[in-house]
Amino acid sequence: MNIETAHLICYSPTRTTFTNLHHVAEGMELSTSHILDLTLPNGTSDEEITIKDGVALIGVPIYAGRVAPVAAKRLQTIKGRGTPAVIAVVYGNRHYENALIELKQLVEDSGFKVIAGATLIGEHSYSSDKKPIALGRPDEKDKHIGRQFGAKIMEKLKKVTDLAHLPPLELPGSLPEGPYLGPANITPEIIPERCILCGQCVECCPTGAIKANETISINASLCTFCCACLKTCPEDAVRITIPKVLEKVDYLYEHFQTRREPELFL
Q1: Which domain holds residue 49?
Q2: Which of 64, 126, 158, 254 is deepest in the core (most CB within 10 A)?
Q3: What's the predicted TM-score (pTM) here?
Q4: Are residues 90 and 196 in the same domain?
């Protein structure tokens, strides 16, 4: 197949998914790359977008072993016409569980042909300087692996004359039952004495849950606890304070320090 264009389609609140996907695209060395970022509310639409040419690189973060629910919803507006797709799920060094095969089903239901998949690593959204979890990832080693993966994808595509001749891509896991709804009615806490009302947390929130007036407020019914606001705040004014979440942070920090590596499926 003669592929000239890559379409980078991602949902990436803390930007690790986008960075990983970009590394793969670099390795493909295509003349044109289009970015379709589904992260922010103003970057999405209820109108369907059809990817008719090239190859789609579709990446999402994993929340609790599942495709991030906002990502799953927004991907429903992106359609293919038998278009080849590479899928990637990004997780914070714990485990990817059934997210990759879940993403495969979502993408194929939208008309794409999945030809390759990857489980990639990004710094955990709960990671901090005091309790780092996959700190700084994707790093240079991840970048190299991503580029190599991109090159191998192109080798595969060049050998194919008809996607219908490709056998279904086998991936680990089993399809989970029912939708994953994510955390309910919890939010990070704004520390008023540290907040300078710069508005960066408002701008980075994927669901529009954060509002700025005389103070910053977070709508718990909209918050997905993606932690983009924590990563973005320049004054450390957004923090995790909920006891159950802090317990989870401690557990992740204590039990998941051993480096996990990307897994690639072609």
Answers
A1: 5-177+259-265
A2: 126
A3: 0.95
A4: no
Tokens of 206: 């994927």
Locate the DSSP E strands across the chain. 5-10, 32-37, 49-51, 55-63, 66-67, 78-80, 83-91, 112-121, 189-190, 210-212, 216-218, 238-239, 263-265
Angle at 95 between CA 44 and CA 157, to 5 degrees: 60
d(CA 160, CA 153): 11
- Domain total for the chain? 2
Peptide bond into 138 cis (omega under 30): yes
Whether pLDDT at 35 is above 80 = yes
Same domain, 50 and 163: yes
Beta strand segments in 128-203, E: 189-190
Q: What's the whole-number mean pLDDT along residues 170-174?
A: 94
Q: Which residue has the tokens 């080693």?
A: 141
Q: How many CB atoms lie within 10 A of CB 216?
A: 21
Pair (47, 173) in one structural domain: yes
pLDDT over threshold 90, residue 18 = yes
Q: Assess whether 136 and 12 both reside in one domain.
A: yes
Q: Does some domain include residue 252? A: no
Q: Which two tokens stand for residue 250?
A: 């401690």
pLDDT, tens only, 132-146: 999 999 999 999 999
Q: Give 43's pLDDT tier (boundaries 50, 70, 90).
A: low
